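Wed. Picked up where I left off yesterday with 4-hydroxy-3-methylbut-2-enyl diphosphate reductase. The coffee machine is broken again, so keeping this brief.
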Amino acid sequence: MKMPIRFFTDEGQSTPGEVQTGLTPRLPPEGGQLPLNRRAGARFPAGTRSTLGGMIERIHLAKPRGFCAGVVMAIQAVEKAAQTEAKPVTVYHSIVHNHTVVDRLESGYGVHFVEDLDSVDALPQGGETVVFSAHGISPAVRERARALGLATIDATCPLVTKVHTEAKKYAREGYTILLIGDSARHQEVIGTRGEAPDATIVVGVLGKTGEGLADPHTVQVPDPERLVVLTQTTLSVDDTRRTIEILKGRFPALVVPPSEDLCYATKNRQDAVKAIAPHVDLFLVLTSTHSSNGMRLLELAEAECGRSVRLETAADLAGVDLTGVRSVGITSAASTPDDLVQAVVAHFRALNPALEVVEEGEWENIEFREPRKILPTQALPRTMQ
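Structure written out below (tokens, as returned):
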């Protein structure tokens, strides 16, 4: 029997077969930052930050937090496929970078996860339908799936697909692409670079170094007059802006696409942390270490609050020093289920029944269209060619 994944919110339990995110998402005004119900500090009485001991009195939950529209779309695509396909569904790479989500799909739906499409044939119960993860894939992976005779469902986030489209466009026009990323091995970077491998140089976002990453201060290009910058969608907004400024200073002809590649969910979640973090004693970020957007939230919380801790579940609170903590801010990565956040709140409420919990900011309001199944004999959609 296939069991539905249940995600919980502060409004209650989801219905069987549904993924509830707790989100009522809304995009920020064009060119502006996420609007907040009350600006930073408005709901933070004097003395909110404390150096005294004692139990936690107040929790500030960041809005938005948790699942974004792309994650919701990807998870629902896997769930629907698992419910309708005759054989178990295979997902190429983790559908999103969160262990809890992956574990629930494996145990509740019998979904297989692979890092190599050639291993699909070795699965015990087939797996002729493969779902591509939200992070995107390269054309080589898509073609390999077709060669293996696999039906595919592309759950790539549409905002990642937009960057892929830009990469192909500029490569055709003879531009060198400077792709800003936090790791050359991140699935999103691999997928985007795969769209134009001969034209792309991966540049480390400010402060990031590693194998395959060029330094923005020293990167060399074949023609500085035909140069464009694209970015991974889940980076620090501030670090990305500074990196582009460095590149623009070195290469004045650098083209910066008018529409930002950083996704609305990344920016909104970072803005929400900035509004809360300076006013609390401790900031908790629920995220996997594999989540780029989540780790950027953790870095931002540390910079703005001075005291941040990463959690995967409420069980991780056992090792957290709460000395001198009266107020706590909480957020979560775009791939973290909100029931994990609510479990942390419940932990603190059990210690202090009078705990005050306030939510700061506004949810987003956006949905992405469900991806369709493509048989190996079908032509690729125009946007994928």
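Quick read: Confidence is low (pLDDT under 50) at residues 1-53, 381-385.
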